[in-house]
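User: Some background: our group keeps a shared notebook of sequences we're curious about, and every so often someone picks one and asks for a predicted structure to add to the entry. Today it's my turn. The entry only has the sequence so far, pasted here. Could you supply the structure so I can complete it?
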Amino acid sequence: MRRVNLAGWIALLTCGLAWMGEANDLALIDANMGRETAVPNGAVILTPRLTVAPGRKTLLAGTAETLVAHGSTNPITWFVMENPSGATLSTLTSTSALYQAGTTSAVVDVIQAWDGDNQFGRTYLNVLSAADVTQVGKAVIMAGRKGPDDGLWPVTDYLADYGYNTLLYRGFSKENVHYLSCVTEQDSDGNGLEDDVDLATTHANAADTFTTWVNEASRLFVYLVDHGGDSSGEGYFRLNESETLTAAELDGWLDTLQSNWNTEVTVLLDFCHAGSFLDELTFASNRIVIAACTDTEPSYFMAGGLASFSDAFFCGVKLGLNIDESFRQARDAMSALQTAWLDDNGDGTYQDGVDGTYAATQVLGASCVAGKDIPQIGLVCGNQLLTAGTTATLWADDVTSEYEIEQVWCLVIPPSHTPEPDQPVSDIPEVALAYDQQDGWYEGRYEGFVEEGTYKVVYYARDVWGSVSLPVQRYVIQEGFEERVILVNGGLTNGPHWSTLDNMARQAYHTCLRRWLDGDSIYYISAAENQDVDGDGTNDVDALPVLTNLEFAVREWAGTTNWGGPADKLTVFLMGEESGDAFELNASETLSAAVLDSWLDEYQLSNQPPAMVILEFDGSGAFVPDLTPPADCERVILACVESGKNCVWAARGRMSFSGALLGCVFNGMNMGDAFDLAALCIRGASGRVQQLAQLDGDGDGVPNEPDQERAVASTFYLGSAFMTGDDSPAINTPMPETPLPEASTSLVVWAEDVTDMDGVSNVWCTVTDPEYDGSTELPETNLLWNASTGRYEVVYGDFTNLGAYVVTFFAEDTLGEISEPRQSWITRYQDEGDTDADEMLDGWEVQFFGGVTNADADTDEDGDTFSNWAEWLAGTDPTNPGSVFELGGPAAPAGGPGVILAWPSLSGRIYSVDFTTNLVTDPFAPLVTNLVATPAENVFTDDVHAAEGQLFYRIRVGRE
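Assistant: Of course. Here's the predicted structure to add to the notebook entry:
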């Protein structure tokens, strides 16, 4: 610590504080004379903990803005620190004031709030004229989405909003920003009004925007963010679940605009294969095209979008950098993951050192930027790659300020951090950077780089008045974290299930590669000794399935230093046949749960790394009680079925617990969410088998306990926990559940809005009969594209039994990537004594309506929102609004986890129970189907979702 002399600062501080009229200012200065400080040129130590909302804003000359101070219970005194616009300021309440911008524009007013003690805060207000705003030009933002269940949408929405608010700060008016989003009703700028999104992201709206709305603009900025792709050299951008925008279409619109109005255009593209647009968006002059990645790369959006090309680019724009500087900052920030391109000479290619000359002359927005008197950070340490250890030195240099620097620090955003855009971020690690006299910079060490992936490090500086610098960001990539997978295919090459097991094992191997685990991190055990699974021309099988090889893999390859271990995380994936309560490795050897547990215990006791076990074989739930981890160690067990029960493998393994699980993991889902979806999928598709998957996340050997298992499982990932903009297949609209009369045995089965930027190669479904017992293969049927209906469909003619059929849909793209499964239900019901063919029996119609033709099936006679047909099916009175089909209150069973459900039962009906955890975002999925009626009440115990904290149920009824 160094002692500083404050005498030279008394005059300046007294002048500033006396302007505020605070009597105790001199006493405060005197009290701090000679105080020790950790920074050079220290001055009075004040506490800038008041926050003023808004902290920074751009507004027109003459307009007003209400300022509100937070962080003190004292009355706030407001004053104008700098007033080049000629603004006025008047107190409204004890914590708020009304600011009225003056008439002078292209300037920055600085307003300060003071609580009469030692806390203060500031706000910077850009004041622009109408002419300044017009000169800024127009902007178009398009946030696409590939469907309602698009896992990338929260990131897309956040980045589009961030871009929108950056443009407003830079002087664009709301009227000059055309914002297209798949969610139109949202308050993006936080003013309490849903007045920001102009139109839905459709092709028609895009066409109108670029052919009509942008006309006469002198300058235009275009920002597209979502999924994208490249098909046969032509770039595509995903608008919504059914529409895309091609690079050629966008180029045609922009060519017309620039030819007619000589508009200066800048286009920012952040989606996978964005570079495929460069060669098509060429123009002779005044056009800048920026692609976040090349034409063959995915674009990465990590930490909820905070670590992305877009975020880094807009950070540069806020700093006041020109377009070329903003591009280079974003390019360098993401260089470890993707390669950004820029073309501003119209040749359709990117050449570093050639392109960028014109972009360096352009800025987004007005030239007036708040911050001329706030601290500036000149240099920070570059991006770092950690290949060993969890500690890195972080530093900032050339920190300058008009006022004295009080603090320099950085925030460290871990890879798994997922912020909510509308909530303040308060849980980010903060590292203080102390001034180093010898090196002349601010330095600190952070030891918490324990998670594999990319950390975003954001640097800040603050002066004694509380003015905070704009952020400077860099990245630390942790690769020293070693994750390994032992993948075991225990099938016999001449066995009846070899083809299925081989297909599942290959899917697992490809999924590991997709999650950033290379071949050296996968120990593949299979009876087929020579397999080139990844297509690189080399053998990927490491060993035959014998007990000594598996023991070596766990204890030596993963557990010692001889092979670069011990691994920091291990997943063991066993798929094959059951032999008693053991796993069959080959014709003569088996693996017991106790032996596997002893090997894993030895591995985890080395340095307490996490472990995960995935079990895909009959009776695999028998392993769960014996695979409990040592104390203070985390171990997640996923078993495909209960002890003593058979599991279902169909469609060459694609219809299986593991097939569904891997489809979810492939897209970056955590193991808790992936288990939920896979368990629900196989439960519905397994018919009378009613396959019940098992999850033990808390390590007590008891699966599927309420509120316990998913807490740990949801923190586990297979490979890196990141979301990419890669566009895997998606089935957005499967056919709805459909009743089928007994007289019919065929129905058109269909799926709509099937999307993939690489091209859909196949759509198919499996159909589970109500009598299916798992002893035969599930029927698998391809769906064909029908241009007239705009969907994939097939006439399925084997609805021969009465009851509920479960139809499970899949899609595959040209790269062999398979979608997450989607399901629907077809209920074939008994149809007897129905004279008028309205699907209501004659006797019931006579009972309630006095005749067999007096009631219309679609009419709601008693106004209770249920049609007459629905009331007939449920057995309720269609003339009494108080007679409704209701689910009784759930109860907890005695002696075990689960929920007891009860509902009124009617002879001749069958019942199915559906489940969801969120009525707003998640569709219902089948829990159990084809329950035979047990009048006057049916009772069912749900032991599948005992680990859930929030449950919603739906009962479906059909005829036998």
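Suggested note for the entry: The CA atoms of residues 138 and 176 lie 5 Å apart. Confidence is low (pLDDT under 50) at residues 1-48, 419-427.
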